[in-house]
Structure formats: C-alpha cells, structure tokens
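Appendix B, Record 12. Input sequence as logged:
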Amino acid sequence: MKSREYLTVTEVYGPLMIVEGVSGVAYGEVVDITTPDGEIKHGQVLDAYEDRAVVQVYEGTRGIDTYRTKVRFRGETVKFGVGMELLGRVFSGRGVPIDGGPKPIFEDEWDVYGSPINPSAREYPNEFIQTGISVIDGMNTLVRGQKLPIFSGAGLPHNELVAQIARQAKVLGEEEKFAVVFCGMGITHEEAAFFIRDFERSGAIERATVFLNLANDPAIERILTPRLALTTAEYLAFVQGMQVLVILTDMTNYCEALREVSAARGEVPGRRGYPGYMYTDLATIYERAGRIKGKSGSVTQMPVLT
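Logged structural output:
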C-alpha cells in the first residue's frame, strides 16, 4: 500500500491527535509526523474511521499544531528487523537500541503481529527447560513450547525470581542452542537498572535479548513491546533452530495499557474497565508459544502477573 501525507490535524489532546480527511487508513498503521520545526515523531493509528484517524504519538505531542504539522501514513503495520546480532543487546519498548551500541545489522524484516501456528503443525511438547529453581523443575516443570505463568503480588520478589531464571535457565543436551528474550513492560527505572546489572554481572546478557518499556513510556508502546520480543524469539527458534525462553513481566501492566488505549478510543468498557477483547488480545501473545513439526527450535513463555 502506498503512503499518504496529510496536513489536516484538527485536534491534539494528551498523547493523541485527530487527523481528518483521510482515506484508506487502517488500525495499527505506522505514522510519521513532522512538526513545524522539523522534528520527526512516530506514532500508530489507534482508531480509523471512513475519513478520520486517531493517532497515538510515541514521543508525545509537544510541538504539534493544527496548521503546519505533516502526517504521513506509511500503509504498513509495525515491522522489526531480525538477525543474530540481536543477541546481547538491550532495546527500548519500540525496538531502539539503548545500550550505547551500534544499530544491529538485520538479516530480515518481520511483521511484529506474526501469524498463528497451525494447530496441526504443532509438535507435542515433551522436553523440559531447566530453570535452576528446584520447586519449578521438580513439581511444575517448564516444558519447551509451553507457557508457565508466575503469579505474584506487590512486595513479592518476582523480579529477583525471573532474573534468577534468566541467569540459570538452560536446556539439556550438548548440541542444543539456548537463548532468553526478556521483555519488561511498565517497569520502573530502578527495576530496569536491576535487570540490566544482573544480566551483565552474570554474563547472561551474551545469550539474551532485552526489551524494556518503562512506566513513563506511552501505553501504545507497551502493547507493542511483547510483540517485538516474540518476533525476535520466533526468528531465533524457527530460523536459527534455538530453544528460546521468553520472559514477560509484567502482564498486568500490559492489560492496564490495553485499558488505557481502549478508553482513549471511547470503547464501552467491560469488567473493571478492561476492554471486552482483552482475553482475545492476550491469546494473540500466548498462542505464539510452541514447537513446529520439522523445526528444531521452540518458543517457551514465562509470563509474570501481579
């Protein structure tokens, strides 16, 4: 689809802006915004009508006016470059490197929303990932290609637990390649510093890819972050043949971001204000775990809920 550019911003409030007179705009489409002073911002379509689009701006709406701001709809959803150079790197919730290193050289570009695994193509899970936590390994074994949630609460040491699992987890067998994709959503600066420091101190960063969405980052970015992590995991598993453990913390923050975006779109809320499609949305994340017949790799998920 071809990109289109408009100068018809009619309203700006909070992190949102309204663009009138548009055509062919789709939900989730990537948007480039040029402010009157030449600054480039990025956003995503939150809601699309026949001739109007609601856009959430990642970097905030400061500097955007309703007269000279240019809005370009790219005609595509979010894509993320994948490659082996993602290992050992730390990215923001939008996939921008934040570890001071150069931009990775990508081998391919994948749609972050992925595609569901055909149920008939799924391989039956029968091998486990050793977490190094005796109560998990002995009583609630983490099996390759499955999902094992950690239910926690305020004040409990779930951050220390998932950091320990990321540090210690391994697969048995000399020929098996193993990687961890860590996805932090809505975490504080202190928590982000703790995870990075722990990974670097233990050397686990060398086999890990880390995505960090902080508590002060936009809600729409928080919805994007786990999809970037899973796109990376799918590439490592199904192209490179690795056993990949994806740690998602905190899914509660993800659900609250869904609620915030739903309210911004003016949708009718469900129970506790969450959108009625929340469980469907969560399924698009959880069902990306699995093993595929004919492929040696696997994607295993460990989501944390508080």
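The first strand starts at residue 4 and ends at 6.
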